Amino acid sequence: MEWIHLFETWIWLGFAATGFAILFNVPPRTLWVIFIMGALGGTLKLICLKLGTNIILSSFMGALLIGFLSVVAAHLRHSPPFIFAIPAVIPMVPGAFTYRMMLGIIRLTGENDHTIFLQLLQETFDNGLKAFFVLTALSLGVSGPMLLSRNKSTKEIKTSKIVTKIFGSKKASD
């Protein structure tokens, strides 16, 4: 029964990633790759959660897998890595924590009891921090492999034209 539930979750995560890919108008030839990447990244996150890892590290691991797979897919499908990575990682965005934080802020405005106010404040702050750290983990996990796999250093990336426009010719006139 556990495997059936995992497979069903895998399918829904893939459909969610594909839906966001269609929303972002990615090339149709990349849709099946995005389906698989979204399903694999989200499933890894769920497996890490089942094994007892916290939500932040689990999200980072899923996003890291998506980041590495997007670099490989970019070379194989001749498309930029972000075409694959962004739609695949969006289903892992922590909507529940953000919703609970906003709901807590609304409830804080009408609470008069001091002890309940402090409890609501703590829960709201906790949900907000979890959402922030999960989003940070997702962004670092997706962008890390892309930054590690670059062919050129930062100094070599089309800065020569900008430097020439600002400072004139590269050759020093002695």
Architecture overview:
The chain crosses the membrane at residues 7-24, 30-48, 55-76, 82-99. One of its GO terms (biological process) is succinate transport. Belongs to the ThrE exporter (TC 2.A.79) family. It is a single chain. This protein is mainly alpha-helical. The chain has one domain. The chain has 7 helices and no strands. Helix 1 (2-23) packs across helix 4 (81-89) and helix 2 packs across helix 4. The longest helix is centred in the C-terminal third of the chain and has 35 residues, at 114-148. It is globular.
- Structural class call reads mainly alpha
Query: What does the main sheet amount to?
Result: none
Low-confidence spans:
none
Q: How many DSSP H or I helices?
A: 7
- The number of domains: 1
Shape: globular
Q: Please indicate the percent range of residues in DSSP E strands (runs of 2 or more).
A: under 5%
Number of strands: 0
Mean pLDDT score, rounded? 88
How much is the radius of gyration in Å? Answer: 22 Å
Helix coverage percent of residues?
over 70%
Alpha-carbon distance between the two ends: 79 Å
Order of helices and strands: HHHHHHH
Using brief descriptors, characterize the structure shown:
single chain, 174 residues, mainly alpha, 7 helices
Quick description:
By secondary structure, this protein is mostly helical.
SSE inventory with pairings:
Layout: H1 2-23, H2 31-50, H3 55-77, H4 81-89, H5 95-109, H6 114-148, H7 160-167
Helix pairs in contact: 1-2, 1-4, 2-3, 2-4, 3-4, 3-6, 5-6
Transmembrane segments: 7-24, 30-48, 55-76, 82-99
Pfam families: ThrE_2
Keywords: Cell inner membrane, Cell membrane, Membrane, Transmembrane, Transmembrane helix
